[in-house]
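Researcher: We're teaching a course module on how sequence relates to structure. For the next exercise, students receive a sequence and then see the predicted structure as tokens, so they can try to spot secondary structure elements on their own. Here is the exercise chain.
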Amino acid sequence: MEEKQLESSQQRGPSRPLHNRIDRLRIRHLRLLEQIAQSGSLSAAAQQMAVSQPGATKMLQEIEAALGSNLIERSSRGARLSAVGSAALGRLRIALGALDATVDALSVQPGIPLVRLGMIPVLAVGALPALAGLLDGAGRLPRLEIHEATVERLTALLREGQLDCVVSTLDSQLKGMADLHITALWEATLVVAAAPNHPLARKRKVPADLLTQFRWALPPEGASGRTHIERWFIQAGLNPPEPFVQAHSFHTRLALVSRTAMLTVAPQAAVRHYAGQEMVRELSLERPMPKGSIFFVTRKEGVQLPEIALIKEALQKIASAG
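Model: And here is the predicted structure for the students to work with:
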């Protein structure tokens, strides 16, 4: 019996005292680190949290004692998080984000779960309505807080715990992240679009060099659509076109193209949506653009939540239906 008790205590190891100290921390302790990171000053953090300077100092000492490490580095310019402090804040933000989401979910309609869904804007054209329709038809639609942003921004929000799940292309920074659950959904294609009366609109096959003779409305530099079209031209042995107009939203670019002789690049789903309204036409290229993939991404603990698993399964159904 004594041997079993000893073995049990050895399995728990030295982590129990640490867990006991952490259990005594309050939410305000965790928010203090975030305020220091944002303000670069312990006194400014104290003011933001409406506590006294000695009170903030005591809170910092308590959280440092709980975690067993120095969490900030002081200098003549103020205070900043140490490497350990930054690592701790990265994890704590997930907990704080989950706590905020719980409060939001329970404060309005406690019986209906809330899902903070991040997605790239193109999905609003087809995938999002299909998702909402499928779940609403089954009487299982959760409340949705939808964030549309770039892949990079969505990735950051997911890692910070500000989003529950993301539907987007897969940023290279996500690869190899052991704490993420990643599911491939469907392939997505970028295409070149023009006005229906554009000289290239009815050509059977448009060569890449002919596209360089026209003005372009393009996403800003660094955006995924801009990177793809530039790489496509370079692989064809051509200099990519310089944008005559820059706009991040493909809705804006397609609206501009519909009334001008400019060309643009946009997701095929969006182009076909506007083509149905006879605003634009998809050009038939001699050398089509490569396809990319859309993924469902959440943290591993997130996929265990019924509402997150429900959205994942619904998106997989949509993907299977083509």
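Model: If you want an answer key for the exercise: The radius of gyration is 25 Å. The longest strand covers residues 180-194.
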